[in-house]
Automatic annotation (TrEMBL):
Family annotation (SUPFAM superfamilies): Inorganic pyrophosphatase
Pfam families in the cross-refs: Pyrophosphatase
Molecular functions (GO terms): inorganic diphosphate phosphatase activity; magnesium ion binding
Top EC class for this record: hydrolase
EC numbers: 3.6.1.1
Keywords attached to this entry: Hydrolase, Magnesium, Metal-binding
GO cellular component: cytoplasm
Cofactors demanded by this protein: Mg(2+)
InterPro entries tied to this protein: Pyrophosphatase (IPR008162), Pyrophosphatase_sf (IPR036649)
One example of a Gene Ontology biological process annotation: phosphate-containing compound metabolic process
Record's protein name: inorganic diphosphatase
Length: 163
């Protein structure tokens, strides 16, 4: 499943950037927990998730990507996540083979090394614990590329209908 992602946060960053309604990249906040983003974070173009925003995605790359750049990605699964009682899946991706053939054999989230999956899961388990009073996050495991494709198909339809 190939898509285009817009990067908001580079891997290793503690700064939460996002694009405002005018398309400006702004600092939303600094991460209070002593953790950094385990992969490049952004969203998949032309999707609309259940929470009313574009579908969130992490792309694993060999070096951090600059915010506001686009990359063609292969979605390989997602973390089934609820944030403050609202569904908020985090899709997991790797670059398409033309961008980086390193990941050509990775077709499912379950093809990733266990240590990589553990790092991503650990980040989402704790990243909102500080400051106190933030939304509670529930994680319900990883889901495969087939379920990811279904959800992203729905998100694309939702986007098309909202135009």
């Amino acid at each position: 499943m190939n898509y285009t992602m817009k990067v908001e946060i580079p891997a290793g960053s503690i700064t939460r950037y996002n694009f405002d309604e005018k398309g400006r990249l702004k600092v939303k906040h600094f991460q209070s927990m002593p953790v950094s983003y385990p992969a490049n974070y952004g969203y998949i173009d032309e999707t609309l998730a259940d929470d009313g925003a574009e579908a969130d995605v992490l792309v694993i790359t060999r070096e951090p990507l600059l915010p506001a750049t686009y990359i063609d990605i292969k979605v390989i699964g997602y973390i089934d996540m609820t944030d403050g009682g609202e569904k908020d899946e985090k899709f997991i991706a790797v670059p398409v083979e033309d961008v980086d053939p390193t990941y050509a054999e990775i077709n499912s989230v379950f093809d990733l090394p266990k240590a990589e999956l553990d790092r991503i899961y650990a980040f989402y388990s704790v990243y909102k614990q500080l400051p106190e009073g933030r939304k509670t996050v529930e994680l319900n495991g990883y889901k495969d590329e087939h379920l990811a494709k279904e959800l992203l198909g729905i998100a694309q339809q939702r986007f098309s209908s909202a135009k």
